[in-house]
Amino acid sequence: MRKILLGTTAVVGLALVAPAAFAQSASLIGAGNHGAAGSPAVATSGLSVRLGGFFDFTYGVVSDDADKGGGYTGTRAAGSQARQTTDMRTESEINLYVDGRASNGLHYGAVFELQMDNMTNTGNGTGVDYDELYGFAKGAWGELRFGQEDSAASLMQVMAPSVLWMGRSDAWDEFVVGSNYIGAGINDGNDSTKIIYLSPQFSGVDFGLSYSSNRNEGEQTTSGSSTNAYQRDYTGLTNEISAALRYRGTVGGVGIAASLAAQFADAAKQSSTGASIATRDQNVTVYSAGLVLSGLMPGLSIGGDYTWGKYRGTPGGASVAQGVDGSDMIGLGAVYTTGAVSVGVNYALSTQSN
Fold first, then answer.
1. Distance between CA 354 and CA 75 in Å, rounded?
2. What is the pLDDT of residues 153-200, one digit of tens each?
3. pLDDT digits 0-9 by tens, 295-311
């Protein structure tokens, strides 16, 4: 079967990060990927409240075959100019972390991540919405999260290393069009409401499980024009389950991070009109293995990951029809850090059936 190769985009980025004084405490439960040591805690009604976040400025030099012809369609009016090859973007979050302890020692709280992303909103790009929004409870038995958060596979998957958050599941692809997420991690960007369990570590090994009823946020609306109007009517992916097994440790002076992750979901049963689908898509299956080694040379981290399964778009993001081949993706990366300077390179090759 003919395959389409989607991997013609190259982006060069320069990221400027806010000082540590504006970043959240990395030791706080529920801290996101942008965490750094910093902000003080304020006691409020027996709870610890921390304010954090980040600011990111990126300058991009873009070479994208799908971009040259006028965007998604690949066509443009006679005499028109191709799109600019350079651009700039900003992204920021204000994060609120609330945690406390019950009289029985249970550690509990909530995380509110407010994002200001000019790719999310129209107009001047200064609108605000939630990135993640979830509660948690933690003890010696592990951590339970419930709310709008990444899946267990997404949280624990080991992928090729990158500089800051310029990896394949992060900011590098903001400049490109089309299928820019086919090289991303499992379930990237899907913060649907779910329940997540993350185990404690045992000799460097931990695991996680998560479940989401569907890919929405839980409120059933009555308006047919709303994207949530049919969320419980089997018109999209349902019963999304993910799992991950991870190891982090040191062997002979070499740091090792490795993971096996998987995600499954049932394909849609009905069309948007409520009619039963005679021949349903294949159920979604995604598997991934990753390995990163650090310390082979001072300041150097190298690694890669391989993902495969029955899916389309973002790994785990959409189902494929019966008789259509699966998808696969390999990613490689290396980062060298000396002092305050990090230099990295990422490569990904993703194929999906036509």
1. 21
2. 999 999 999 988 788 887 777 777 655 678 889 988 788 899 999 999
3. 999 999 999 999 999 99
Say how far apart CA 50 and CA 30 lie, in whole Å: 12
For 115, residues 6+ apart whose C-beta sits below 8 A from its C-beta are: 91, 92, 93, 128, 129, 130, 131
Three-state secondary structure of 19-45: CHHHCCCCCCCCCCCCCCCCCCCEEEC
| Range in 17-21, 294-298, 345-349 the model is least confident about | 17-21
- For 65, the 3-state DSSP assignment is helix
- Name the residue among 340, 342, 228, 352 with its Cα closest to residue 294: 342
Element (H, E) at 271: none
> Are 53 and 93 in contact, with CB atoms under 8 Å apart?
yes
Q: How far apart are CA 197 and CA 243, in angstroms?
A: 9
* CA separation for the pair 311, 320 (Å, rounded): 6
Side chain identity at residue 158, one-letter code:
V
Q: How far apart (Å, rounded) are the C-alpha atoms in residues 324 and 1?
A: 8
Residue type present at position 110: A
- β partners of residue 301: 294, 335
317-345 burial, b for 16+ CB within 10 Å, e for fewer?
Answer: bbbbeeebebbbbbbbbbbbbeeeebebe
> Using CB atoms within 10 A of its CB, is residue 145 exposed (0-12), middle (13-18) or buried (19+)?
buried
What is the maximum alpha-carbon separation in the chain?
72
Identify residue 247 by its one-letter amino acid code: Y
At residue 245, what is the residue type? L
* pTM, rounded to two decimals: 0.80
Contact 170, 82 (CB under 8 A): no
